[in-house]
Design brief:
With 321 residues, the protein is of the alpha/beta class. Helices cover 52% and strands 9% of the residues. The protein has two domains: 2-254, 3-Layer(aba) Sandwich (Rossmann fold); 275-320, no CATH class.
Length: 321
Amino acid sequence: MLDEVVFEPQMDKGLYHERRDQLGERLMVLQQQAKAAKLGTVIIFEGWHAAGKGACISNLVVNLDPRLYSVHNIADPVGYEARLPFMARFWSRLGAHGTMTIFNRSYYDALSRSYVDEVREGNITADRATREALTERAMRRIKEHVGSARAFETQLEADGYLIVKLFLHITKQEQTRRTIDLLLDQNSSWKVDDRDMSQLRHYEDYYRVFDRWLSDPKFMTTGVWHVVPSQYKRNATIQVMQTIADEMTRALEARGFDTSQPIPAGDEPVVTVTPAQRAFAELEAAQVAEERAPREFEDGASDADPTAANGGRPLTAAMAT
């Protein structure tokens, strides 16, 4: 599957900005419609290290209502999470109906790394029996993880969630170049960790695993993968935003919503003011107006003319008497 990916020439900068702005506005409308339709959306970003997942996510959410989406950068579980079942930390991060949950890496990343690491360990073992045992253990674990992932996605879809799975693909040469650039910049070197370096060193092993679970029905869960050529970040950003917009449009129209309208008829917009909020705002405005108004003395004279309340005499003279 990855062998068939075609890397198009880099998109013109002017065209990129135009299409990005158009898609940003479109996604903003779709987000409002998804809230009205109570359509939960789960977006999974997978792919090579340094393929531009973070940049695509940043461009995706720039126009969205921050109350209606969450972004989760998935690392290895530690502490309490390490003692939980494999999928527990993904269930706990799942957003409510009508919101968007974005995973920057996911259970697929853990699945591929556990397989590659154990198979590689088995391949360098001189003892054939040990090598076969390690390979068998890796296969058993990956099957368990695939089963858990399939159950997770099947239950979400049955509950009305939309799942969009994106795999950002780059060549080994491009990954190497980007990783070196990140390491040489003290402001970005922190982005490269041990698992990233392991993936770069064993690119071919990961390539075979990625290609298998992207195309092999035995390793696939529900839905389809959208492979995004990410050799050029402009192209990748536009394809990611377009894919998500198309998938959300399809899901909303399947529910009978007219996606050509900013907000479905009869539904309130996302930003609403409750009666309590309106009353509080009116009370606050009244207090501000009262503070700014001239204060009145007992005889009706205002503090604008402080001598009026003393028969026109200066205050110092009035105080002396």
